[in-house]
Amino acid sequence: MAFVVAEPCVKCKYTDCVDVCPVECFFEGENMLVISPDECIDCGACVPECPAEAIFDEDEVPEQWEEYIELNARLAEEWVDSPITEKKDALPDADEWKDVESKRQHLSETPA
Ligand code: SF4
Ligand code: F3S
Fold first, then answer.
1. Measured between alpha carbons, how far is 13 from 51 in angstroms, rounded to an integer?
2. Residue 55 lies in domain
3. Which protein residues touch ligand 1 with a CB less than 6 Å away?
4. What CATH number does the domain containing 8 carry?
5. In angstroms, rounded to a whole number, what is the distance separating the alpha carbons of residues 104 and 7?
6. 33-35 and 26-28 as β-strands: parallel, antiparallel, unpaired?
7. Residue 35 lies in a domain
8. Among 16, 28, 85, which residue has the most ligand 2 atoms within 8 Å of its CB, making it the best to mutate?
């Protein structure tokens, strides 16, 4: 089991989540982060830190974002050379994108 970054992170990438993570399980893409299910210790500390409410327990990912369970696992491997362990500036238009409902088509699979 692990925690999962879902669609609200896309185009926002606030990165508050990485500051509280006791292990190094966040990996960075161009416009979102993912959690490596192999590294996550299920502490849940990152969940309340995300301004976009993008992080869920794997068992509680809303149905419309279930695809992100597999996406986090796959992209964490593909982005293995782009770990992120410290907070940085959010993407410039993060506040405008935070409440946009459907952002799947904007997800970039390019590592940061
Ligand atoms: Fe890190 Fe804990 Fe969040 Fe997993 S649940 S990503 S270990 S802060
Ligand atoms: Fe993304 Fe939220 Fe972290 S927007 S980068 S999951 S703080």
1. 10
2. 3-83
3. 3, 20-21, 23, 25, 35, 40-46
4. 3.30.70.20
5. 7
6. antiparallel
7. yes
8. 16
What are 84's two structure tokens? 């992120």
Asked if residue 23 belongs to a domain, the reply is: yes
User: What are the tens digits of pLDDT across the range 43-95?
Assistant: 999 999 999 999 999 999 999 999 999 999 999 999 999 999 999 999 999 99
Q: How many domains does the chain have?
A: 1
Determine contact, residues 111/81, Cβ cutoff 8 Å. Answer: yes
On whether the pTM is more than 0.85, the answer is yes
Indicate whether 102 belongs to any domain. Answer: no
Strand 55-57 and strand 3-5: pairing? Answer: antiparallel
Ligand in closest contact with the CA of 86? 2
Residue pair 104/6 in contact (Cβ under 8 Å)? The answer is no
